[in-house]
């Protein structure tokens, strides 16, 4: 008999499907590979199982969205964790993460960790950036603040969230604080590399309050494999809001005259670092080699 459920973990070729209070260990049908289909954590699926350790996924139901890095589907919100120190906060990296989330129509939440051990200069840099992101419309939380952690748990209620960020920024530490029963392993910072050691070995949907968070392997690079240059402006809310004021309909806000976005930057209505990051990503997209 066919059942419906949601994949909550993928590990070593097995997919663990939660359905009606039980978790079933399953494999994907052989024809999935021929059809170039790969089940993802978060997928709603149709499966069959004679018992809880021997099942097969028959069908992947339509996805609302999906991410490549981390490989998850049907995400409602994304908690993007950045540290104030070790590694230091980078607005350029933050903007790249935000673009990756915005292009999938997922609501991003910014969470800052390690502010309690940051230097005064690092704290000032984070505070200045936070003001910009909040003005754009993003919610910003502090990982070490008990009130903010409670607010995060409330945000995840009845939702599926993904938590992502560079290795070493404290994702596992934050998850352990959100749900002490998880006791996820945490890693030391690698001084030689300047980034954290990978401590998460698989993608898994974890219970947080009345919702779920997908813990994901740390990563430090983002690929723009399916984003067209003209679509990038829609991933920057403050640019999208002003594009209608540009003289030319196809304005990319780069070198075009009578550009409302460039005017807003000159008048300090759009942060210079956000516009520069937009231009940098735009250049990368325009110089990207075509895929066949």
From TrEMBL:
It is an enzyme of class 3 (hydrolase). Gene3D superfamilies: Nucleic acid-binding proteins, P-loop containing nucleotide triphosphate hydrolases, Probable gtpase engc, domain 3. Residues 64-222 form the CP-type G domain. Its EC number is 3.6.1.-. Its cofactor is Zn(2+). GTP binds at residues 113-116, 165-173. It is found in: Cytoplasm. Zn(2+) binds at residues 246, 251, 253, 259. Binds 1 zinc ion per subunit. Residues 73-220 form the EngC GTPase domain. Keywords: Cytoplasm, GTP-binding, Hydrolase, Metal-binding, Nucleotide-binding, Ribosome biogenesis, RNA-binding, rRNA-binding, Zinc. SUPFAM superfamilies: Nucleic acid-binding proteins, P-loop containing nucleoside triphosphate hydrolases. Monomer. Associates with 30S ribosomal subunit, binds 16S rRNA. NCBIfam families: ribosome small subunit-dependent GTPase A (TIGR00157). Belongs to the TRAFAC class YlqF/YawG GTPase family. RsgA subfamily. One of several proteins that assist in the late maturation steps of the functional core of the 30S ribosomal subunit. Helps release RbfA from mature subunits. May play a role in the assembly of ribosomal proteins into the subunit. Circularly permuted GTPase that catalyzes slow GTP hydrolysis, GTPase activity is stimulated by the 30S ribosomal subunit. This is Small ribosomal subunit biogenesis GTPase RsgA. It comes from Listeria floridensis FSL S10-1187. The lineage of its organism: Bacteria, Bacillati, Bacillota, Bacilli, Bacillales. The gene is rsgA.
């Amino acid at each position: 008999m066919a059942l419906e459920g949601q994949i909550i973990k993928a590990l070593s070729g097995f997919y663990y499907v939660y359905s009606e209070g039980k978790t079933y260990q399953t494999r994907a049908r052989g024809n999935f590979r021929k059809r170039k289909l790969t089940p993802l954590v978060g997928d709603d699926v149709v499966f069959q199982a004679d018992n809880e350790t021997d099942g097969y996924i028959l069908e992947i139901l339509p996805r609302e969205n999906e991410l490549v890095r981390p490989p998850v589907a049907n995400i409602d919100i994304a908690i993007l964790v950045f540290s104030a120190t070790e590694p230091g906060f980078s607005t350029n990296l933050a903007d790249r993460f935000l673009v990756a989330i915005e292009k999938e129509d997922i609501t991003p939440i910014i969470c800052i960790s390690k502010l309690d051990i940051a230097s005064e200069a690092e704290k000032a840099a984070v505070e200045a950036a936070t003001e910009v992101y909040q003005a754009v419309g993003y919610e910003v939380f502090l990982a070490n603040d008990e009130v903010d952690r409670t607010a995060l748990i409330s945000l995840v209620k009845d939702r599926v969230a993904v938590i992502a960020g560079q290795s070493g920024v404290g994702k596992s530490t934050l998850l352990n604080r959100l749900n002490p029963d998880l006791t996820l392993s945490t890693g030391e910072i690698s001084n030689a590399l300047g980034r954290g050691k990978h401590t998460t070995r698989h993608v898994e949907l974890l219970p947080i309050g009345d919702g779920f968070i997908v813990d994901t392997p740390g990563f430090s690079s983002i690929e723009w494999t399916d984003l067209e240059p003209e679509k990038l402006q829609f991933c920057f809310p403050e640019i999208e809001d002003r594009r209608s004021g540009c003289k030319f309909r196809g304005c990319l806000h780069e070198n075009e005259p009578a550009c409302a976005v460039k005017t807003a930057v000159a008048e300090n209505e759009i942060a210079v670092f956000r516009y520069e990051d937009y231009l940098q990503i735009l250049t990368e997209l325009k110089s990207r080699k075509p895929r066949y």
